[in-house]
Protein backbone atom coordinates (compact mmCIF):
# COMPACT_ATOMS: atom_id res chain seq x y z
CA UNK A 1 0.00 0.00 0.00
CA UNK A 2 2.89 2.36 0.68
CA UNK A 3 4.29 1.71 -2.78
CA UNK A 4 0.86 2.25 -4.35
CA UNK A 5 0.63 5.51 -2.39
CA UNK A 6 3.88 6.74 -3.94
CA UNK A 7 2.56 5.92 -7.41
CA UNK A 8 -0.74 7.64 -6.62
CA UNK A 9 1.05 10.74 -5.42
CA UNK A 10 3.12 10.92 -8.58
CA UNK A 11 0.00 10.99 -10.77
CA UNK A 12 -2.41 12.97 -8.61
CA UNK A 13 -4.57 9.96 -7.79
CA UNK A 14 -6.21 9.30 -4.41
CA UNK A 15 -4.79 6.36 -2.44
CA UNK A 16 -7.83 6.51 -0.15
CA UNK A 17 -10.10 5.47 -3.00
CA UNK A 18 -7.65 2.77 -4.12
CA UNK A 19 -7.45 1.45 -0.56
CA UNK A 20 -11.24 1.15 -0.36
CA UNK A 21 -11.42 -0.68 -3.67
CA UNK A 22 -8.65 -3.14 -2.81
CA UNK A 23 -9.99 -3.64 0.71
CA UNK A 24 -13.48 -4.42 -0.56
CA UNK A 25 -12.11 -7.76 -1.79
CA UNK A 26 -12.97 -10.07 1.12
CA UNK A 27 -9.85 -12.13 0.41
CA UNK A 28 -7.77 -9.08 1.36
CA UNK A 29 -9.80 -6.89 3.71
CA UNK A 30 -9.18 -3.24 4.53
CA UNK A 31 -8.02 -3.32 8.16
CA UNK A 32 -4.27 -3.05 7.52
CA UNK A 33 -4.20 -1.19 4.22
CA UNK A 34 -3.41 2.30 5.48
CA UNK A 35 -0.40 3.98 3.85
CA UNK A 36 2.00 6.02 5.95
CA UNK A 37 5.65 6.28 6.85
CA UNK A 38 6.13 2.52 7.18
CA UNK A 39 5.58 -0.17 9.78
CA UNK A 40 7.68 -0.64 12.90
CA UNK A 41 7.58 -2.28 16.30
CA UNK A 42 9.33 -5.30 17.73
CA UNK A 43 7.61 -8.02 15.71
CA UNK A 44 6.80 -7.45 12.05
CA UNK A 45 10.14 -5.95 10.90
CA UNK A 46 12.00 -8.77 12.64
CA UNK A 47 9.66 -11.42 11.25
CA UNK A 48 10.00 -10.22 7.65
CA UNK A 49 13.80 -10.31 7.94
CA UNK A 50 13.64 -13.74 9.62
CA UNK A 51 11.55 -15.07 6.74
CA UNK A 52 14.19 -13.94 4.28
CA UNK A 53 16.92 -15.62 6.33
CA UNK A 54 15.00 -18.87 6.68
CA UNK A 55 14.26 -18.93 2.96
CA UNK A 56 17.92 -18.29 2.12
CA UNK A 57 19.00 -21.22 4.32
CA UNK A 58 16.78 -23.42 2.19
CA UNK A 59 18.19 -22.10 -1.06
CA UNK A 60 15.14 -19.91 -1.78
CA UNK A 61 15.28 -16.23 -2.71
CA UNK A 62 12.32 -14.63 -0.88
CA UNK A 63 11.74 -11.94 -3.50
CA UNK A 64 8.43 -10.62 -2.14
CA UNK A 65 9.66 -10.50 1.47
CA UNK A 66 12.78 -8.61 0.35
CA UNK A 67 10.67 -6.15 -1.62
CA UNK A 68 8.40 -5.52 1.37
CA UNK A 69 11.44 -4.89 3.54
CA UNK A 70 12.98 -2.54 0.98
CA UNK A 71 9.81 -0.47 0.56
CA UNK A 72 9.46 -0.18 4.33
CA UNK A 73 13.06 0.96 4.73
CA UNK A 74 12.60 3.61 2.04
CA UNK A 75 9.15 4.88 3.08
CA UNK A 76 10.25 7.21 5.92
CA UNK A 77 13.04 8.55 3.69
CA UNK A 78 10.45 9.25 1.00
CA UNK A 79 8.37 11.15 3.57
CA UNK A 80 11.35 13.12 4.91
CA UNK A 81 12.31 14.10 1.36
CA UNK A 82 8.72 15.22 0.75
CA UNK A 83 9.01 17.50 3.79
CA UNK A 84 12.38 18.83 2.61
CA UNK A 85 11.11 19.53 -0.90
CA UNK A 86 8.07 21.41 0.43
CA UNK A 87 10.25 23.61 2.59
CA UNK A 88 12.53 24.25 -0.35
CA UNK A 89 9.47 25.30 -2.34
CA UNK A 90 8.59 27.70 0.46
CA UNK A 91 12.13 29.12 0.09
CA UNK A 92 12.84 28.36 3.71
CA UNK A 93 14.93 25.23 3.24
CA UNK A 94 15.43 23.11 6.34
CA UNK A 95 18.70 24.59 7.55
CA UNK A 96 18.12 26.08 11.02
CA UNK A 97 14.32 26.01 10.53
CA UNK A 98 12.17 24.79 13.45
CA UNK A 99 9.66 22.07 12.60
CA UNK A 100 6.96 20.69 14.88
CA UNK A 101 6.68 16.90 14.97
CA UNK A 102 3.75 14.93 16.38
CA UNK A 103 4.48 11.31 17.19
CA UNK A 104 7.55 9.24 17.97
CA UNK A 105 6.27 5.75 18.77
CA UNK A 106 5.64 3.26 15.99
CA UNK A 107 1.84 3.20 16.23
CA UNK A 108 -1.25 4.68 17.85
CA UNK A 109 -1.68 3.95 21.54
CA UNK A 110 1.83 2.63 22.09
CA UNK A 111 5.01 3.98 23.65
CA UNK A 112 7.14 1.41 21.80
CA UNK A 113 10.07 3.03 20.00
CA UNK A 114 11.55 -0.16 18.59
CA UNK A 115 11.98 0.12 14.82
CA UNK A 116 9.85 3.27 14.86
CA UNK A 117 9.77 4.86 11.43
CA UNK A 118 9.18 8.22 13.14
CA UNK A 119 12.74 8.07 14.46
CA UNK A 120 14.00 7.60 10.91
CA UNK A 121 12.05 10.68 9.81
CA UNK A 122 13.44 12.62 12.77
CA UNK A 123 16.97 11.53 11.91
CA UNK A 124 16.59 12.67 8.30
CA UNK A 125 15.13 16.06 9.26
CA UNK A 126 17.98 16.64 11.69
CA UNK A 127 20.53 15.46 9.16
CA UNK A 128 19.15 18.02 6.71
CA UNK A 129 19.72 20.77 9.30
CA UNK A 130 16.27 21.24 10.84
CA UNK A 131 15.61 21.90 14.50
CA UNK A 132 12.67 19.79 15.68
CA UNK A 133 10.14 20.27 18.48
CA UNK A 134 8.70 16.82 19.20
CA UNK A 135 5.71 15.60 21.16
CA UNK A 136 4.37 12.13 21.78
CA UNK A 137 1.62 11.86 24.43
CA UNK A 138 2.46 8.27 25.35
CA UNK A 139 6.15 7.66 24.60
CA UNK A 140 7.17 10.84 26.42
CA UNK A 141 4.90 10.08 29.37
CA UNK A 142 6.31 6.57 29.72
CA UNK A 143 9.90 7.76 29.37
CA UNK A 144 10.75 5.70 26.30
CA UNK A 145 11.12 8.66 23.93
CA UNK A 146 14.08 10.46 25.50
CA UNK A 147 16.70 7.68 25.25
CA UNK A 148 15.63 6.75 21.73
CA UNK A 149 15.82 10.35 20.50
CA UNK A 150 19.09 10.89 22.34
CA UNK A 151 20.58 7.94 20.44
CA UNK A 152 19.56 9.55 17.14
CA UNK A 153 21.12 12.87 18.11
CA UNK A 154 24.34 11.24 19.28
CA UNK A 155 24.55 9.10 16.15
CA UNK A 156 24.44 12.25 14.04
CA UNK A 157 26.96 14.02 16.27
CA UNK A 158 24.58 16.91 16.97
CA UNK A 159 23.97 19.05 20.02
CA UNK A 160 20.99 17.85 22.02
CA UNK A 161 19.37 21.28 21.69
CA UNK A 162 18.56 20.40 18.06
CA UNK A 163 15.59 18.46 19.50
CA UNK A 164 13.18 20.08 21.93
CA UNK A 165 10.74 17.90 23.87
CA UNK A 166 7.47 19.83 23.84
CA UNK A 167 4.94 19.74 26.66
CA UNK A 168 1.90 19.27 24.43
CA UNK A 169 0.61 19.29 20.88
CA UNK A 170 0.41 23.08 20.71
CA UNK A 171 3.75 23.63 22.43
CA UNK A 172 5.30 21.49 19.67
CA UNK A 173 4.42 24.13 17.09
CA UNK A 174 5.28 27.23 19.14
CA UNK A 175 7.13 28.43 17.19
CA UNK A 176 7.42 26.28 14.05
CA UNK A 177 7.42 26.84 10.32
CA UNK A 178 5.41 23.70 9.76
CA UNK A 179 4.12 20.50 11.32
CA UNK A 180 4.90 16.89 10.42
CA UNK A 181 2.74 14.05 11.75
CA UNK A 182 4.40 10.67 12.21
CA UNK A 183 2.11 8.68 14.54
CA UNK A 184 -1.66 8.37 14.46
CA UNK A 185 -2.27 8.88 18.18
CA UNK A 186 -5.88 9.73 19.06
CA UNK A 187 -4.69 13.01 20.59
CA UNK A 188 -3.75 14.24 17.11
CA UNK A 189 -7.00 13.41 15.33
CA UNK A 190 -9.21 16.35 16.36
CA UNK A 191 -7.01 19.32 17.27
CA UNK A 192 -8.00 22.99 17.33
CA UNK A 193 -6.96 23.96 13.82
CA UNK A 194 -7.55 27.66 14.32
CA UNK A 195 -5.22 27.60 17.28
CA UNK A 196 -2.64 25.68 15.27
CA UNK A 197 -2.78 28.24 12.48
CA UNK A 198 -2.38 31.11 14.93
CA UNK A 199 0.68 29.54 16.56
CA UNK A 200 2.66 28.40 13.53
CA UNK A 201 4.82 30.73 11.46
CA UNK A 202 3.36 29.15 8.32
CA UNK A 203 0.15 27.07 7.97
CA UNK A 204 1.96 24.03 6.54
CA UNK A 205 1.13 20.45 7.63
CA UNK A 206 2.77 17.34 6.19
CA UNK A 207 0.76 14.36 7.39
CA UNK A 208 2.46 10.95 7.31
CA UNK A 209 -0.66 9.21 8.62
CA UNK A 210 -3.42 10.78 6.47
CA UNK A 211 -5.40 11.87 9.52
CA UNK A 212 -7.34 14.68 7.85
CA UNK A 213 -9.25 15.29 4.65
CA UNK A 214 -7.33 17.45 2.12
CA UNK A 215 -10.35 19.47 0.96
CA UNK A 216 -11.36 20.34 4.51
CA UNK A 217 -7.81 21.36 5.40
CA UNK A 218 -7.63 23.62 2.36
CA UNK A 219 -10.85 25.32 3.42
CA UNK A 220 -9.35 25.86 6.86
CA UNK A 221 -6.49 27.76 5.24
CA UNK A 222 -3.71 25.17 5.47
CA UNK A 223 -1.21 23.98 2.92
CA UNK A 224 -1.80 20.31 3.62
CA UNK A 225 0.13 17.37 2.18
CA UNK A 226 -0.36 13.69 2.93
CA UNK A 227 0.65 10.28 1.57
CA UNK A 228 -0.67 9.34 -1.86
CA UNK A 229 -3.48 11.91 -2.01
CA UNK A 230 -4.09 15.07 -4.01
CATH class of the largest domain reads Alpha Beta
Major sheet? 6 strands, parallel
Question: What is the helix tally?
Answer: 8
Low-confidence stretches: none
Strand order of the largest sheet: 3-2-1-4-5-6
In short:
With 230 residues, this protein is α/β, with parallel strands linked by helices. It has 2 domains: 1-35, no CATH class; 76-225, NAD(P)-binding Rossmann-like Domain (Rossmann fold, 3-Layer(aba) Sandwich), CATH 3.40.50. The protein contains 8 helices and 6 strands.
Describe, in plain words, how this protein is organized in 3D.
Strand 5, helix 8 and strand 6 form a beta-alpha-beta unit. The mean pLDDT is 95. This protein has helices spanning 2-11, 15-23, 44-57, 63-89, 117-127, 145-156, 193-199, 214-219, and strands at 98-102, 131-135, 163-165, 179-181, 204-207, 223-225. The protein is of the alpha/beta class and 230 residues long. The protein folds into 2 domains: 1-35, no CATH class; 76-225, Rossmann fold (3-Layer(aba) Sandwich).
Amino acid sequence: MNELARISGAFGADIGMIRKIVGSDERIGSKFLFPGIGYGGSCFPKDVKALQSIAKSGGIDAIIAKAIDEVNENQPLYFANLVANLFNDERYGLKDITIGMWGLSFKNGSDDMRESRALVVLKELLRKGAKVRVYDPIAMKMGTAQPAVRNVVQELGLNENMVIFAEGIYDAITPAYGLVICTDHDAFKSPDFERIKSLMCAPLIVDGRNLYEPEKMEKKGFRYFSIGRK
